């Protein structure tokens, strides 16, 4: 009985010990599982960098990897996938596995993560789309964004190669760039020229009325500016002692001739001289005949208008003492008027004398007048414009001097000219360039010389292109940027080969 009690007690003690051992193991296993859940991350190149969360290394910007992966040999695999390389942005041949400065130019080396050659296929590398800035083609990136210089949106970089001045662009890239072409052809360059000016007097239709002997004006028949005068109308009545003496000379010679009854005699010649003198003083035949009939000199004589026109200026009053040669009136015949307008120098090749034009005025709405160019100035004024004059019939008198006028001249160059759209021309300040489309997606930049530009925005080509060629009219600025970028890269290579060794300061 005693033995059974001892055995039962021993079993109970052993069971209690086993229970305590099991509880102790359970408590120890719980912290281990919590430690496993809180995994740490480290940098493959800088093991001293440890983080509780995934991210990038603050030193080399590489992606952090789980610390457990490094413990099981995966660290080496991650290092192979993204191996840090430091290089110089100006001298890419300088490569280092540590940060530092370039031995050529003393610039700080920049980190470059190189992927193993077997991770990206050659086809994938060729299809990788790059982006560049249209204003700064040296900016190239693998992702879209903004230019760090001008903040313009980056555009896809064309798949372009350049050889011997010829750029090759594949079809898809041409489509992305919006490349369009136009054929070089001969065409009639026409232009509609609008010029503005004023109605003026026709210079050949302006007259001066003056007196050829001294005297006193006793009566004015035309006594105000703007009066309409017809040829033969009385203008003024004048008293002149010299005129009375000339009449008496005529009468004396006439009486002597009648007394001698001889056709060829001295009195006859004296009569002819007296008549010529009176006519030279604008005394008409009717007045001379009246003098011969009355046989008495007249105290005053009437001066008649020698021209048709409107009085534009009056310089005499009744009672004035006038001298020989003094201008008394100015007349202007407005049956024909001029329009004086100015055109810019680039329009002069389209204008010539004898050319027809249409003239209108806002003062006479709905009406236009047919005219012709009678004068093109041989020089330009201070504003680099040339004067042209047009003659217009004005029988109705609706066009008045100093009235505002608009001139419309439609003209064509006399011969057909080789021409292209003006949008195809790239002006660099000293050069004019176009891109000529060749076969198989090739484009060649070419210098040209241009002439006049017509109203349809076609520009005359004087040299550099041939009939039948095709020029780029849209997208040529992208081609120009690419060609300049390749030239710059080639120039950098040439400079590098000729540059002496050593540091650049």
How big is the Rg? 52 Å
Strand order in the sheet with the most strands: 14-23-26-25-24-27
Mean pLDDT: 78
The separation of the N and C termini measures 107 Å
Strand content: 25-35%
Structural overview:
This protein is of the alpha+beta class. It has 5 domains: 51-126, no CATH class; 129-158, no CATH class; 160-187 and 417-498, conserved putative lor/sdh protein from methanococcus maripaludis s2 fold (Beta Barrel); 191-203 and 333-412, Efflux pump adaptor protein, beta barrel domain (Elongation Factor Tu (Ef-tu), domain 3); 212-325, no CATH class. Helices cover 26% and strands 33% of the residues. The chain is built from 9 helices and 34 strands. The strands form 9 sheets. The protein has a 6-stranded antiparallel beta barrel. A hairpin with a 4-residue loop joins β32 and β33. α6 (241-260) runs antiparallel to α7. The termini are far apart. Mean pLDDT is 78; it is low at 23-37, 72-82, 113-127 and 492-505.
Please outline what is shown here.
The protein has 505 residues and is α+β, with helices and mostly antiparallel strands. Strands 14-23-26-25-24-27 form a six-stranded antiparallel beta barrel. Strands 10-11-31-30-29 form a five-stranded antiparallel β-sheet.
Strand and helix layout:
Elements: H1 2-37, E1 41-42, E2 50-51, E3 65-66, H2 67-71, H3 74-81, E4 83-87, E5 95-96, E6 110-114, H4 122-126, E7 131-132, E8 140-141, E9 155-156, E10 160-163, E11 166-169, H5 171-177, E12 180-183, E13 185-187, E14 190-201, E15 206-210, E16 215-220, E17 228-229, E18 234-239, H6 241-260, H7 266-280, H8 285-294, E19 300-304, E20 309-314, E21 321-322, E22 327-332, E23 336-344, E24 356-360, E25 368-376, E26 385-393, E27 404-412, E28 417-421, E29 426-427, E30 432-437, E31 442-447, E32 449-453, E33 458-463, E34 470-474, H9 476-498
Antiparallel strand pairs: 1-2, 1-3, 4-5, 4-6, 7-8, 7-9, 10-11, 11-31, 12-34, 13-28, 14-23, 14-27, 15-22, 16-18, 16-21, 17-20, 18-19, 20-22, 23-26, 24-25, 24-27, 25-26, 28-33, 29-30, 30-31, 32-33
Helix pairs in contact: 6-7
